[in-house]
Amino acid sequence: MNPVESLITEQALKSFAATPDPRFKQIMQSLVRHLHAFASEVELTEQEWFEGIRFLTDTGHMCDGFVRQEFILLSDTLGLSMLVDAINHRHVANATETTVFGPFYIDGMPERAYGENMALTPGEVALIHGRVLDTEGKPLAGVLLDVWQTAGNGMYSGQDVDQPVGNLRGRYRTDANGDFAIRTILPVCYPIPTDGPVGRMLEAAERHPWRPGHVHFMLELPGYRKLVTHLFTQDDPYLESDAVFGVKQSLQVAYEARTVHDTVSAKVGMELPFKQAYYTFVLVSE
Ligand code: BEZ
Ligand code: FE
């Protein structure tokens, strides 16, 4: 940076010198330093600066107060969401890994019984079951599992107004043995929304918008850290190139084709044939 340009950065930094909240001061000064370094490194033109302002304005206009959050989508597609997730959830031995929350969670979805069907739209019938343990291997009873996934058309209920309310969403609980069971349909891979500025960015970069098939989970139990994660479908073609960088090896599950019952599927009353996946979640105590 030449001296005139450095002086601008110094002045902007100094303007935050008396900020009373030390964390706010640190964040704002670091933001100024990195923003200025970025503009200098690429020698940002005035036209590019204005294009950036327009892009962010369009991103804001694309947000609604409900399911569409284009700024989160931008953060996701820049890898920022996964970086923040990694910084805030450094791995604890044995514990289940976290991944991106995504913009399609809806609070207050129906409470569902062990093995209850959450799919009100068609697809390949699947049973996801397993256990929730603590890091010592002790089963945890009464864990709330908030679950959501897309329908066969690749859209979430709420996002797609034609789907029934609560479709492919539900709040399950582990039983006294720490077991849970969810009757659903096989998740499909789907593109993140591309009808806004994030879609334009992906297109300009010749990046695809696809996410591998997955089911979202948020697990909560008092005294334990909240776990936000997904279970990804093994062998999905997009596991290596998730548009939002969310895939982790430990979160991949195989859906086995079943033509005969085991104890769990008989208890749940699954109709044969169906696909079945098993997973053990491990929560960290606070
Ligand atoms: C999702 O998995 O729901 C999602 C995550 C990030 C961006 C868009 C969708
Ligand atoms: Fe998703």
Automatic annotation (TrEMBL):
MF terms (GO), sorted A to Z: catechol 1,2-dioxygenase activity; ferric iron binding
Keyword Ribonucleoprotein: no
Pfam family, one: Dioxygenase_N
Domain Intradiol ring-cleavage dioxygenases: 128-156
Co-factor requirement: Fe(3+)
UniProt KW Ribosomal protein keyword: no
Keyword annotations of the record: Dioxygenase, Iron, Metal-binding, Oxidoreductase
GO BP annotations, alphabetical order: catechol-containing compound metabolic process
UniProt xrefs under InterPro entries: 1_2-HQD/HQD, Catechol_dOase_N, Intradiol_dOase_C, Intradiol_dOase_core, Intradiol_RC_Dioxygenase
Family: Belongs to the intradiol ring-cleavage dioxygenase family.
Name of the protein: 6-chlorohydroxyquinol-1,2-dioxygenase
Organism: Pseudomonas fluorescens
